[in-house]
Amino acid sequence: MKIIIPMAGKGSRLLPHTLNTPKPLMSIAGKTILRRLVENLYKIIQVFSIQEIIFIIGNFGNQVEKQLIRLSHDLSLNPIIYYQIIPLGTADALLKAKNSLTGEPIIVAFSDSLFYQNSFDKEITHDNIIWTKKVKNPHLFGIVKCDSSGVITHFIEKPNNYVSNLAIVGLYYFKNSLLLKKELQSIFDRNIKNEKEYQLTSVLENMRIKGEKFISKQVKEWMDFGNQKRTIYSNSRILSIESKNSKLIHEKVMIKDSLIIKPCSIGKHTSIENSIIGPYVSIGKHTKVKNSNIKKSLIQDYTIIQYANLNHSIIGNQSIYIGEKFKKVSLSDYSVYK
């Protein structure tokens, strides 16, 4: 078995934070989204003795590739990198990895979602699996419709009318990657697009029509990082979950004349002075916060914040923010606001 992680998207709904840092490499409570995703799947890696992890990336540069290689080696996995320079949809992304789709089972995990509380290794059987979650707004997602036994009877990409509320969360198990490759190539050859892109939902529906059986398995906890609102909410959920079992404030943090309202995550060598932090705030490493009030926000590494009143905000790496009014701020890496 292999794991494939497509992550070539531009992250346009999370701009300006993805201008310099690919979304999967944004840090949430001390770990990148990508590392968290791979750790979510680590039980599968162990149980099925997975040795290879495949990344499909855009033109992200050498530093990003080095991060991917380092993450893979940390988990004793062999990394393979493919490129999708022009983003033409999820199916097109997977087709870039066709040389690795040689017939063995694969896990496909898109890099902007995280999952908690599932025993994925125990859910994998002899059937193809699509992991899903009930949502309130199914028209925004790829949707599955199932029979009473959980067998998927239809795949629909962002339906205009209500069909089902079971959204595809971006995690898939294919028992035969060669069959997947053939159908990926087929929709590309026949130029079958949805909203000008080659969508994996179309591939799945064609495979189903041709006789492949897919089972829906629901995840218990799904966190999405599609846009700023969802990212801040997911940060809060991660802090709530991990505060029960983990120490989220690094021992090498300087806190002076300040109040920390948990749950919060504060990284190594960060200083907090004359401030109120929390609840639901993640602050990266080597950041300096002074004379500020911050709640429900995400602050990255090597950043300076002074005289700020922030709520539902994201401030990027190596930025400076100095302000007085209560604000919802969205500041990208290497930015200055005074």
What does this structure look like?
The protein is α/β, with parallel strands linked by helices and 338 residues long. It folds into 2 domains: 225 residues, Spore Coat Polysaccharide Biosynthesis Protein SpsA, Chain A (Alpha-Beta Complex); 99 residues, UDP N-Acetylglucosamine Acyltransferase, domain 1 (3 Solenoid). Helices cover 22% and strands 32% of the residues. It contains 8 helices and 29 strands. Strands 1, 4, 5, 6, 8, 9, 10, 11 and 12 form a 9-stranded mixed beta sheet that branches. A 6-stranded parallel beta sheet has the order 14-17-20-23-26-29, with no helix packed on it. The protein has a 5-stranded parallel beta sheet with strand order 15-18-21-24-27, with no helix packed on it. Helix 6 crosses helix 7. The mean pLDDT is 91.
